[in-house]
Amino acid sequence: QVQLVESGGGFVQPGGSLRLSCEASGTIFRINDMGWYRQGRRELVATISSGGNANYADAVKGRFTISRDNTKNTTYLQMNSLKPEDTDVYYCNAHLQRRRVGAPVGYWGQGTQVTVSS
Asked: Model confidence at 31, in pLDDT bands (50, 70, 90)?
């Protein structure tokens, strides 16, 4: 089995910051892309390759930073200058191989709520 466990969501005032974390655990041979998706806006917020190449939705460029620690099978989303419209449930996603052979499969975390309000 593979699990993606997210943490770091919460309540913050506009202009504030939050850092989300997502750790993949279980039988994992290799993790390819990892990313964050927000449900209400149906938007892929950010992705990062195994080599560290990052891509962002236009709405978060310059405010959010995605990173990963391959030694910990973990990805992070640093969210700065948060706006009320960033309020949403954020889901972690990872495309990974559980064994040396076979195509990567996508896995999802359980979601974490981010609320930005004054």
From this structure: very high
